[in-house]
DNA sequence: CCTACCGATCGGTAGG
DNA sequence: CCTACCGATCGGTAGG
């Protein structure tokens, strides 16, 4: 039997229903995708009726757009802070990896697919740009420092551009924010994420290959 | 004006309407996702009416299942062939990468998401297993040879398991089968894929880091 | 923020 | 493999 929760769990009543909706929308949209999440599911998970959503957002796309924008902006702040103190590049990158693995608990590829195929061209343009500014550029900046300091090869010597490094880095991390096969318990979750972060960083700094073979 | 193509382009009339449907289904499902592709879109792209699909497949899920199974089986054959001749591991892996980049022109992550969240538990079990057997195991076998031959570190010396190597390898390749941002023309497409394949293989064999810094 | 309700579209079926 | 059609569900609106 499914009980309808009309009184939301952690809501101190006021003008913050909008924030509740955005939080719930993130959990559902990011897990199942834009198309698969209905406005009725969203409303019920918030303890509201479906038409009530339209008091806070013009339509489903506006709600999705606001949610993604808020999410990207929050992450951008931290990444830009980490990019500013690029002392030891491998150490900073590991912090970036740990932060993202803990903060991004969803499928980035799914989000980008939704942005590309489920939203209007205008909404897509906005989010593409914000993703570039908020995710790729700060990480690329760290990689640029890593190249300058000699940790990584530049494009003239067989390496790739900072943006390409950042893109590869994000792709690899997404492997661990969304497991390819089955899931395990939550006690070892934290430990797994730290070792995953180390693994990805080590892969970039050439510590998986056998040096005797080079 | 949208003309309905009642006579499919390349169909030599007979019992192969089913094959036409499967081909069209792959293009649409793999690009837009299970939920977003309607049975009417599929039928129209095949030059059929929507109920005609149900003469060949019991329902939408059965159609999707058959399509993915056929696709995985075809790829499995080639990967197993490549895994059998593991002479020079880096060279074989580059061939695997080139093959997959040319053969898999869609978003593997989207497919895995559909398998996980849009299909029945039974269908999911079947496809999870086939993906494991058809994609991961053959590639893991090559990596295992690479570890044995000393190209890569084993788990006891800071490396990871062959399956983990294979999983990372597939994740990285998916970055290039589904571009993170905009698309370019098709003339440079082939060249791009070859250099992408080389890049991914080099990343694993530690040729992106600066050896002087190790 | 609710009740009541709308047109459109979905996957699937009947019957030939 | 077609025409005709079904119940369910979708995003969104009216009106209070």
Structural summary, described in words:
2 copies of one chain form a homodimer. By secondary structure, chain A is mostly helical. In chain A, 64% of the residues lie in helices and 0% in strands. In chain A, α4 packs antiparallel against α5 (89-103) and α5 (89-103) runs antiparallel to α7 (121-148). Chain A is elongated, with a radius of gyration of 20 Å. The interface between A and B is large, with 45 and 45 residues. The first copy, chain A, binds a DNA duplex (16 and 16 nucleotides) through loops.
- Give the helix/strand class of chain A: mainly alpha
3D shape of chain A:
elongated
* Largest interface, counted by CB within 8 Å of the partner chain's CB: A-B, 45 and 45 residues
- Measured as a percent range, the helix fraction of chain A is 55-70%
Taking the alpha carbons of the first and last residues of chain A, their distance comes to: 63 Å
User: How many β-strand runs of chain A?
Assistant: 0
Write down the oligomeric state: homodimer
Order of helices and strands of chain A: HHHHHHHHH
How many H/I helices of chain A?
Answer: 9
Low-pLDDT runs of chain A: 1-12
Radius of gyration from the alpha-carbon trace of chain A, in angstroms: 20 Å
Task: Average the pLDDT over all residues of chain A and give the rounded result.
Answer: 88
Main beta sheet of chain A: none
Beta-strand content bin of chain A: under 5%
Describe what is shown at a glance.
Two copies of one chain form a homodimer. In chain A, 64% of the residues lie in helices and 0% in strands.
């Amino acid at each position: 039997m499914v009980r309808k929760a009309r009184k939301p769990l952690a809501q101190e009543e006021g003008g913050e229903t909008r924030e509740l909706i955005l939080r719930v929308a993130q959990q559902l949209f990011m897990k199942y995708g834009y198309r698969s999440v209905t406005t009725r599911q969203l409303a019920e998970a918030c303890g509201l009726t479906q038409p009530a959503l339209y008091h806070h957002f013009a339509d489903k796309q506006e709600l999705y757009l606001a949610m993604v924008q808020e999410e990207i902006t929050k992450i951008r702040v931290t990444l830009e802070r980490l990019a500013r103190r690029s002392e030891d590049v491998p150490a900073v990158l590991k912090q970036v990896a740990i932060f993202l693995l803990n903060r991004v608990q969803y499928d980035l590829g799914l989000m980008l697919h939704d942005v590309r195929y489920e939203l209007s061209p205008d909404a897509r343009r906005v989010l593409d740009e914000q993703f570039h500014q908020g995710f790729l550029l700060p990480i690329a900046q760290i990689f640029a420092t890593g190249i300058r300091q000699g940790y990584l090869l530049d494009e003239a010597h067989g390496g790739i551009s900072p943006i390409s490094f950042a893109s590869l880095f994000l792709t690899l991390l997404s492997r661990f924010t969304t497991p390819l096969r089955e899931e395990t318990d939550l006690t070892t979750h934290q430990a797994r994420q730290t070792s995953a972060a180390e693994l990805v960083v080590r892969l970039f700094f050439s510590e998986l290959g056998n040096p005797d073979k080079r």
